[in-house]
Fold these 4 entries.
Entry 1:
Amino acid sequence: MTQATRQELIEGVLAGNLISFPTDTVPALAALPQKAPLIFAAKQRSQDKPLILMAADATELWDFVAGSREELLIWQQMAATYWPGAVTMVLPASDRVPKDINLASPDTVGLRVPNHAVAQAILARTGALATTSANKSGKPPLQTLEEIAAEFPHVLTLLPTLGGEPLASAMPSTVIKWIGNNWQILRLGAVTLKT
């Protein structure tokens, strides 16, 4: 059985299994950071496409980055403005980030705190998880837990909601990268940044 209660989902990911849960953008496929290869295998995804680390709170993510005190203050200010929310920040990675998260550019890591009660409740119990959209590589993100359960029968998903309604905005997060001393927008998504 792949459909699980929230508690079973939490226990499952902590035991090293793949899980899926709703977020404020598109549903996530997630694993412990050290189990990131499971995500690439399930999605049939090229390893040159990075995963992101998602957590319930920004304070759980700063150990995964490496920068000066001044840079950290800038990053924390950006997080205070847009997190929880649909902004992914790509920052210099510390040695705490497993290399499998981003083989193409192991010196960076994408980070996000979702603005979704279910995702927050799960992440508060699991700590930071390696995540990506729930879909096979090159296909559109799946929108309901029923679709995810059908596409990924070995992945633990939450028990279906009535009606199989879409889970959130269905738009991906906006991705920004810290380069030198400024932000570069890598992907426009659900959030328009204030300039």
Note: The first strand starts at residue 3 and ends at 4.
Entry 2:
Amino acid sequence: MVKLILGGKGSGKTKWLIDNANKDMKAGNGNIAFIDVDDDHIFTLDYNVRLINAMEFNIKDIESFYGFLCGLIGMDYDVEKIYIDSIYKVIDLNIPSLEKLIENLNIIGEKFQVEFFINVDYTMEKIPEHLRDYSIELEFEYAV
């Protein structure tokens, strides 16, 4: 399963990801990974959530990001959920690349029973109709 976490700037997308990763870590049996573009959230994430700084892995485009995620799953078959924050700051997540990423992640997610939650810099009105089933839009009431 892939879910896109949508919302305007300041709507609380990162807070939602952190809160849900922490909640899932306490409730789940598998491992939780949190991918970010820095280490700023190291003290807000449960210490059992694996924080990975994507900037350390030379991710240049959607294909290398997908390969990075496959490597993560291949290294740890107990990964249950992967939360991805702010990757749009590193690679271009335009609509065609999002479509391809969702398609690929659905395949490996189903095969290895992994769920993906991806913070993207879009609102529901800018997401095509066929991607809305993959989307959760946050309103400003979730903001910090």
Note: The CA atoms of residues 6 and 131 lie 11 Å apart.
Entry 3:
Amino acid sequence: MGKDGESSISDEEWERFLREAEAGTRGAPQEPSARARMVARRLREEPARPDAWRAHEPPRRGGGKARYVAGLLVAAGLLVVALNPGRVTGWFGGGGGAGAPLAAESERPDQPPPTTAADQRPTREQPFRGSPAARWDDGAAGIGMPAARATGWMGKEQVAQALDRSRDFLVASNLDHGVLRGERPKRAIALINPHQQDVQRYLAAAFRSPSRGDDPLLLFSRFDQAKVRLVGDVVKSRGRITYREGERGAVEVTADVTFVYPVARAGADGDEVVRTIVRREIVMSWDDPAKVITERGTFSLRSYKSDTTNGGCGTYTGYLTPEFGTGSASPDDGRTIDPYDRSTPVEAGGRGGSARTCGTATRS
């Protein structure tokens, strides 16, 4: 031993000793020397070395099997989505017309909405169950509105006002709860040019003595409260408003909107709920008062067409008359219609027109 308790063995001799001991050299010491015991004691007494702040620690092994199984599950899920995306949509609430609300309609769709399970009947708690309308917006929110721009005789702000009032007419004639209960649509009528004599004659006759030619349902949705009640406070709608320059510089606004009304028998204790569906295509002309006799803030009706499902066929009482018990049965002339298909225009003739009789709806 040297001074201060240190070994007098040189470093070279110590390293040779370690190599020979590890190799099992004959004659190598069988127990560590004093230096070895001292080093071992020093290592035990010194604290652990802190980790370097920028040191990289290799990831621990393990969990490989779990990652492998998870990868297989992800791959299988992607395969199911590719083969049957509709089914996956159903897992997340998309079945039966449920799911995320649709974006506003900005142009005519190129196909009808997908069908849903036939056994998903409407109920009082879920009146739109099993219907594409379950994903439609409520009331006026379902009517897509275009951006305003200067057109014809109107500046941008005037066009915006004309568009808003056109939507107001749709609301007052098809969504107003008083009108739906059978009241006279006074606010809607007030938006129609009072100098348009043929329309004013039609309106007067339609509410006085409804008939095939003078049917208020050509423009307005009304139910007889003594026979039919709306289920809940929500009416679903989907459609859009467009516009262009018309005759004599007028701003011609076209509305194409479908309304879905869930109804039940008035005073009935049963749970039967059916739906009446009305699609309207109305062209309104906001005329230049300098060229056409009109009142500011009113429009002239250019045309109005409608398709109605389960609202009555061959009956002209002034009210929509849905049928119960048989779904939406109607006399059948061989023609079928999907009331939710908005990919084609409303056919000429409309309710009460001579070009059509009653057909059969493919769904309600």
Note: The mean pLDDT is 79.
Entry 4:
Amino acid sequence: MCRADRGVVLGLHRSGPDRDVLEHALSLGVRGIDTAYNYRGFTSHRALACTAGDLLGEFTVSTKVGYFPSGTGERPMHSLDPDRLRTAVERSAHELGRSPDLVFLHNPELALSGLGPAESYDRLAAACAALAGAARSRICGAWGIATWDPRPLAAAVEHDTSHIQPGVLMLRAGLSVAAPMLSAGENVCRVLDVAPECRWGMSPFGGSTTDPAWSAVDLRAFLAADQDCSTSQAAFRLAYELPPVARVAVGTSNPVHLRDLVAATTLRISDSAISRYRELIQKKGP
């Protein structure tokens, strides 16, 4: 699951699987799909298997476990219970009709916030052991951690990482990531010894490309000279640098938008501009 090139992963967080989009993705060289056990009201895996059909074998599939039905019809509940996580991985494989290539521990920070260092580490280590065991049993190919706020995770692994060795980390990426989040994410990667080629980014636009903020900025200063691109393309390319990641998961149901994002991965950026930006947001603070 580790790649040195800038890969695009088709995310299914906001949009459901669409056969035409999946076919178009393959034609563009996109070979990754990212989903989660709880997406689409816990029906994402079945919907993907049904829609993709014979195409599913052409993709690497990553999913996430950590949210579970509440039993009351309310919002899903989050849990790091090892047995529930193992069961969710098994069910994911069954509903997909194949073993997922990668399973992320989904937002573990929700269960770690407010805990002391020892309890936080123990709870995280037990959850990671469940996913590592699933990988050893070949229920999934590999396992990792996906975190929206890496600060509780950083605190949990500050003094001990012996039983927490994810193969991949997924972090928020891009210009919308505040300095504390960026620093904490990069620190977690260093502490857990996850190389840049095994780091993934998510939410490169901080929600949506239709946000008025994107139409009010000029990102050409971040790029090497003489390159023609849209603001969304520049923003997407920068997501591979803030923090440095090898893949970015992005959701779209628009084939043209997907084509533009794939093209954006070849844009050349200005390293000096990235350095200046980092200095600026560090001085500005939260």
Note: The first strand starts at residue 7 and ends at 11.
